[in-house]
Amino acid sequence: MKRFFSFCLALVLVLSLAGCSGGGNGSGTSQGVQDTQADKGLEIMGDNVTYDPNHLVNDGAPITIDWWVWATEDMFRSIAEAYQEIHPNVTINVINNPWDGFFTKLPLALQRDEEGPTLFNIHNSYEHLLLNYIEPYDISTDDLIADYPSASTHLMDGNIYYMDYGLSTGMFYYNKDLWAEAGLTDDDIPKTWDEFIEVAQKLTKFDENGNMIQAGYNYNNYFNSTVIGLNYQFGDNLFSADGKESLVDGDGMKDAASFLIDLYEKYHVGDKDFGTNYDQSFYQGQSAMVFAWGFFVGNLATNAPDINYGTFEIPTQDGKTPYAYYRYNGESTPGINKNATDAQKEVAQDFIRFFLASDDVQIKLSQDGGLIPAKSSLMEAPELKDTPIVKTVGPHIDRYIWPGAMPSTVENNLKIAGEDILYNGKDADDALKTAADTIDIDLANADFTSSESLYAYYEE
Amino acid sequence: MKHKVLKTALYVVLALVGVITVFPFVWMVLSSFKTNGEIQSIVQTLLPQEPTVDNYMNLQQTFDFLRYFMNSIFIAVAVTVLVIYTSCLCGYVLGKYQFKGKNIIFGFVMMTMMVPWSVTIIPRYTMFMEAGLQDTYISLILPVMVSGFGIFMMKQNMESIPDELIEAARMDGSNEFQTFHKLVLPLCKNGISAIAIFQFLWVWEDYLWPYLMIDSEGKQLLAVGLTLFNGRYSTDYGGLFAATTISILPVIIVYVIFQKRFVAGVAAGAVKG
């Protein structure tokens, strides 16, 4: 036993050296060098939001800031490195965190003054948790909106605290091989919902016993994400005129939900029991069409690289331009911690200006993230104009609505409603009413106001 | 004959339960050699159809797997050793010394086991923040270095040691320090083994507290690292299974080392000697 304890203690000592040595770089440790050259001979970047690299930040003295991100750490690190090349006295530690729990830990960390992260990525559904800790951007809001039109939806008290660098929305993905097998061509890409039902029926297959063996369209486990936004085509906004209450139990949402249910129960182009997940069914080539957001391009590359797929825009009732095709959501620019030191905030403000003015940065963000660039001048950039989402949705992106920094309660409760309707036989109106009641309580607690009224065609 | 049939039936049931228990683990290990497409395939096979070691080769790309692994080993071993020592010490005092208020102290120790950790996590977080212990390993070790469960187990174990042995040691000139370290501790191997396994496992799989306290990536633990495979839109199951397969090796090694004494230790803790 004595030998065992001696061994354990020795092991602890050895491992403590291994475990503690060379740890991460806390914000107190500066690795940068003194920068004495203000004029670097570099060009000024940007259109309205401009960035002149020929200046010193923090008077050229070494300084380190932390930037918390979730996922795509390499992409954000390369942006930080591009900035550090201009300002060698600055070190930006990009710290990757798991998505799960990120917004539990972040508000706590932002209270720790200079010890917390100076920059942090934001997801707009958690805006209400973070607003108290964010410093507004020190950039003219007119300039921001001129370059990034969607920034207007992020104006709060005359300031912009964060905005979108890229936009994403839903579109249909179709399996080109199954499409050809069914005798369909590019001319059959549906523009209306009637045409959609027609091609979906052609793409649906049953065996001799009447069991479905191929779904024309599959939305299993994605009912909620699909139906939120479809209401715009069925005559209702998602929120009331004052932006405070949901219209989840309104006629528009009821009709949208009924339409999705009819696709399965009336037109039999899919089935609630045909696979539990729309995406996996598409990966396996068992569903010919699915509706998913821009991120699905990356998921297909990872999980089903052999699927030969194309995309098309969400159809409309009559093939004409609707009040709104659907909703969009933005990937948000980093926030600046208002509790950071003045020196840290100066660096962060300078970095954000660089982040927004640099076309190279914005192109990389949209390319790697499968996004529509929020900077409108980049819509025709050669690197982006042929990406699936820009090609499919880009021309009409002004006809998509951002409902606002919608708390996750909306999606969560509509998920429950969808499952109640599809699997528990609950009446659709009752299920939506239950969802609406819960959502409204949560919205009141979150002090939420919808941004729908900022939509350019809101009065139509 | 009837006894034999019952025994056979019992073995069959136990074997079935064993298979059901082990199957998900075996499936996970085998799936770590599959591509993500095959893992998510509707047509499932137990054995990989196109075996690949890419999930293992790419582990370092998601995060610094080796560093996280070593960090977890360090914390788990450090905490386990400390808990064993503090549990034995407290268990010895409560089990073998007679003094006023002993039962009240033991009652308090038992009460700490009945307070859910989720109730204490907020005040604990605030305390550690105020003490400036954020992003230090002390913040991971300090709150768990004394375990109510460990003290309870070791008190029961200590009570099974005959008083005569301790008296004999004292009469032979052994001081209290020597008696505890040279006589009592070696007699508690079974209880120590049980605590070692439980404590190592708890620390190894702990997620929320290390996630909240550690900011630097270089200091982060493996349980937190594993969640990096779970993205916002999708999960890299292949990578997750490969990392999990490797991450459970230390737990298995600890169990193999201590298993012989584990059952005896738990049994001894369950009854008063």
From TrEMBL, chain A:
Residues 1-23 form the signal peptide. InterPro entries: SBP. It holds the Pfam family SBP_bac_8. PROSITE patterns: PROKAR_LIPOPROTEIN (PS51257). Keywords: Signal, Transport. Gene3D superfamilies: Periplasmic binding protein-like II. SUPFAM superfamilies: Periplasmic binding protein-like II. One of its GO terms (cellular component) is ATP-binding cassette (ABC) transporter complex, substrate-binding subunit-containing. GO terms for molecular function: maltose binding. GO terms for biological process: maltodextrin transmembrane transport; maltose transport. Belongs to the bacterial solute-binding protein 1 family. This is Extracellular solute-binding protein. The lineage of its organism: Bacteria, Bacillati, Bacillota, Clostridia, Lachnospirales.
Automatic annotation (TrEMBL), chain B:
One of its GO terms (biological process) is transmembrane transport. Keywords: Cell membrane, Membrane, Transmembrane, Transmembrane helix, Transport. Residues 69-258 form the ABC transmembrane type-1 domain. Pfam families: BPD_transp_1 (PF00528). The keyword rRNA processing does not apply. Its main location: membrane. It is a multi-pass membrane protein. InterPro entries: MetI-like, MetI-like_sf. This is Carbohydrate ABC transporter permease.
